[in-house]
Amino acid sequence: MLDPLDPPALHQPLIISAALTGSWPTKEQNPNLPVTEEEIAEAAVEAAAAGAAIVHLHVRNEHGKVTCDPARYAKARDLIRAAGCDVIINMSTGGGAGQTTDEQRAEPVTLAPEIASFDCGSLNFGAGVFVNSPTFLTKLAASMREYRVRPEIECFEPGHVANGLRFIQDAAIDPPYWFQMVLGVRGGAPGTIQQLVHMVQMLPPGALWSACGIGRAQLPLGVAAMTMGGHVRTGLEDNLWYHKGELAQSNAQLVARLVRIAGEIGRPVASPAQAREILGISPLV
Ligand code: ZN
Q1: CB of 233 within 8 A of CB of 210?
Q2: Of the candidates 4, 9, 16, 1, which has an alpha carbon nearest to the alpha carbon of residue 254?
């Protein structure tokens, strides 16, 4: 019989994602941000060594601006694999919230990454608007199915969870369902535990989820997710700081902190191979 005070999810290996670069952060804000493909690959290998099972990638052009260029994504991926690193690679289709066209955003999916982001609705995003129209999302879901890519259903507010449930209901997305609750974006749901609990409660039984808090919400939401039986994302994309007033030295440093906390609360940390199994992703050949 299930013990409600000791649910199996609390013993499930914790999948840590490291979001290494993002679309917006700059080296001026934190010189440790990886920007070139070489830096991104190096940061991925370090984050994996520290305990990340997934690296979430964005790439930048020669001016440091966000791009969806598949050649750059492929280069970063190939450098990670050439280093002998088996971390799961998740490519962003976000395209910097209005900086790229829908067609460009979908291009990384043609590289058949193991995971790609599926931003499940529109919202104000900082000073701009992040548009994810139903037409775009429908095409993106079909393309992810064609290339056998696991969608990471990114939800910035509760309406996005409801939208994700519609795609599931329409059988446009295959199980297991993998949600990423991104909280604390200016324009989205605030980065509070109440919001996280609310959004997680909307999920169907068996859905897998991870939490990603922006800025100062990163660590509290990560710890909350771990203790709720969810998974967690960290990294310089979401937060440039280690403590208030102290810049993070690397993505790996942020991952290592989560690994220590997971150890203290008794969550084992998933290897990339274990995470592939949990997420229904084929083993790396
Ligand atoms: Zn991202």
Answers
A1: yes
A2: 16
| Rounded average pLDDT per 10-residue block, the chain, 285 residues | 70 95 96 98 98 98 94 98 98 83 94 98 92 96 98 98 97 96 97 97 95 97 96 98 97 98 95 97 91
Q: Tell me, in angstroms, the distance from the centre of ligand 1 to residue 222's CA.
A: 16
Pair 34, 42: CB distance under 8 Å: yes
The tokens of 208 are what? 């897998």
Beta carbons of 167 and 174 less than 8 angstroms apart: no
| Alpha-helical runs (H) found in the chain | 37-50, 70-82, 102-106, 134-146, 158-169, 193-201, 218-228, 251-265, 272-279
Residue 228 · residue 209 · CB < 8 Å: no
Query: Per residue in 122-169, pLDDT tens?
Result: 999 988 999 999 999 999 999 999 999 999 999 999 999 999 999 999
Q: CA of 263: how far to CAs of 16, 201, 226, in Å?
A: 13, 26, 11
Two structure tokens written together for 174? 């295959």
- Distance (angstroms) between ligand 1 centre and the Cα of 63 equals 19
Q: How many angstroms does the Cα of residue 92 sit away from the middle of ligand 1?
A: 5
CA dist 273 → 22, 228, 232 (Å): 25, 23, 17
State how far the alpha carbon of 25 is from the alpha carbons of 57, 96, 238, in Å.
13, 11, 9
